[in-house]
Automatic annotation (TrEMBL), chain A:
This is Na+/H+ antiporter subunit E. Its main location: membrane. Keywords: Cell membrane, Membrane, Transmembrane, Transmembrane helix. It comes from the Archaea.
TrEMBL record, chain B:
Keywords: Cell membrane, Membrane, Transmembrane, Transmembrane helix, Transport. Signal peptide: none annotated. It is a multi-pass membrane protein. It is found in: Cell membrane. This is Cation:proton antiporter. One of its GO terms (molecular function) is sodium:proton antiporter activity. Its main location: membrane. PANTHER family: NA(+)/H(+) ANTIPORTER SUBUNIT F1, NA(+)_H(+) ANTIPORTER SUBUNIT F.
UniProtKB/TrEMBL annotation, chain C:
It comes from Methanolobus halotolerans. The keyword Transmembrane helix applies. InterPro entries: PhaG_MnhG_YufB. Keywords: Membrane, Transmembrane, Transmembrane helix. GO terms for molecular function: sodium:proton antiporter activity. Pfam families: PhaG_MnhG_YufB (PF03334). This is Na+/H+ antiporter subunit G. NCBIfam families: CPA3_mnhG_phaG, PRK12674.1-2. The keyword Transmembrane helix applies. The chain crosses the membrane at residues 12-33, 45-64, 70-89.
Length: 164, 87, 116
């Protein structure tokens, strides 16, 4: 029963946002009805993971740093792509390369894959069978090592300390 | 003096034209699916602007449901192309 | 009074930037050569443009139902666009859609054929 509570809090907040008015009544309503949603879809939730408030508070500064890096990277990505689209002559060298990753948990792998998709010029296509490589389509593949290095040093560090 | 609303809606209708070109012309099936997905984003933006202009929150519900249906539809077609079955 | 004016100008700037980026994303759908490059533009530029329009609406109306629902739609688009792009990209590669002629390297091709 105790493990339902963090997910129920999240679902209550989601109900507030979907309903459109954020107040205590809506939050309590969502909180009460959350377990009825969670029981039929039990395999989707990770109940083995133990939540502790102390660990959660310790995670807040890395999460804030990760969010800041993500927002700046998204804005940079849009400016780079807008330049490519507006340039009269198309001179791109796309290609699919394999990028090694160091994350171990499923949550970390999902977050790094989605982060790569939102950053400049790269898009995740697939993951290898042993979960140690991501296949990444990049819009400028003239130097594959540079792309892998920029992902390892720029993004993976923040994901590792925020989600592992 | 044209209003901001007219400007925004006209601009978004202009943005739909390339999507329709790609849906008709697109050489492969994934091209068409990508174009449909992009067109849904444009329609969601149009619905949001219209909802703000009319001052009614119900069109925003339509936008939310439309974005959910577009996501589920895209994933379903991708799964069908990939494995040949839907479920 | 002055705060209202600043918010109005800021939200109009966000609206114009968002509309411009959405239009650029759809223009990239025509200009770029193959399906993977088109996914780049619609995923990144289209999603951020839509998010910009939603932020502009939130700045105009504040935390009323319209503004909160607008920001919900924006966050939902930001969360699901990478997943849809990943699924479509993988399905296209397995379905046999090749890369365009300008491509220089394809390290996924050999792995993909073994998997089949």
């Amino acid at each position: 029963m105790k493990r339902y509570i963090p997910y129920a809090v999240i679902l209550g907040l989601v109900w507030c946002f979907v309903h459109g008015t954020i107040n205590l009544n809506n939050f309590v309503l969502g909180f009460i009805f959350a377990p009825f949603i969670m029981i039929p879809f039990k395999p989707l939730y990770n109940f083995e993971h133990d939540f502790s408030v102390k660990r959660g508070i310790k995670k807040i500064p890395p999460l804030a740093r990760y969010s800041f890096v993500l927002i700046t990277e998204i804005i940079k990505a849009n400016i780079v792509l807008a330049k490519i689209v507006l340039k009269p002559k198309m001179d791109i060298k796309p290609g699919i390369i394999a990028v090694p990753i160091r994350t171990k948990t499923e949550l970390g792998t999902t977050v790094i894959a989605n982060t790569i998709t939102l950053t400049p010029g790269t898009l995740t296509i697939d993951i290898s069978d042993d979960r140690s490589f991501l296949y990444v389509h990049t819009i400028d593949a003239s130097d594959p090592d540079a792309v892998a290095r920029s992902i390892r040093d720029g993004l993976e560090k923040y994901v590792l300390e925020a989600f592992e | 003096m044209i209003s901001m609303f007219t400007f925004a809606i006209t601009f978004m209708v202009l943005a739909i034209v390339p999507c329709i070109y790609r849906i008709i012309k697109g050489p492969t099936i994934p091209d068409r699916v990508v174009a449909l997905d992009a067109m849904t984003v444009v329609i969601v933006v149009m619905l949001a602007i219209y909802s703000f202009d009319r001052g009614s929150a119900f069109f925003m519900d339509v936008a939310l449901v439309l974005s959910i249906i577009a996501f589920v539809g895209t994933v379903t077609i991708a799964k069908y192309l990939d494995e040949g079955v839907v479920l | 009074m002055i705060v209202d004016t600043i918010l109005e100008i800021l939200s109009n700037i966000f609206l114009v930037i968002g509309l411009f980026f959405v239009f650029l994303g759809m223009l990239g759908l025509v200009r770029l050569p193959d399906v993977y490059n088109r996914l780049h533009t619609t995923t990144k530029i289209g999603t951020l443009g839509a998010f910009g329009v939603m932020i502009s609406i939130l700045l105009k109306v504040g935390f009323s139902p319209i503004g909160v629902k607008a920001i919900t739609v924006g966050l939902f688009l930001l969360l699901t666009a990478p997943i849809a792009a990943h699924m479509i990209g993988r399905a296209a590669h397995r379905h046999g859609v090749g890369l365009c002629d300008e491509s220089v390297v394809d390290e996924y091709g050999k792995v993909c054929t073994i998997k089949k």
